[in-house]
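Take one protein record:
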Amino acid sequence: MTFPSLPAVPIALQFQSVNFTALKPGPTLIVLGAVHGNETAGSKAILRCMEEFQSGAKTLLCGSVTFVPITNPLAYNRKQRNAIAT
């Protein structure tokens, strides 16, 4: 199994989120990746889940889920744990 490559973050002061909402009400979940910029495994898993929802391989039965593959783009672009200059 291979994971998709991570997207580039052209502007480090904003992030992208993707939301999937079922027609039936239910719980709300937010899934965050790359909270620490040098931890990319979660981001890769999130991209895989997003792809599965977009392709129809997975279906949300109720509620909603929001994915944020790269929560800390400034640290992610610097390939370091946090955005504080070291």
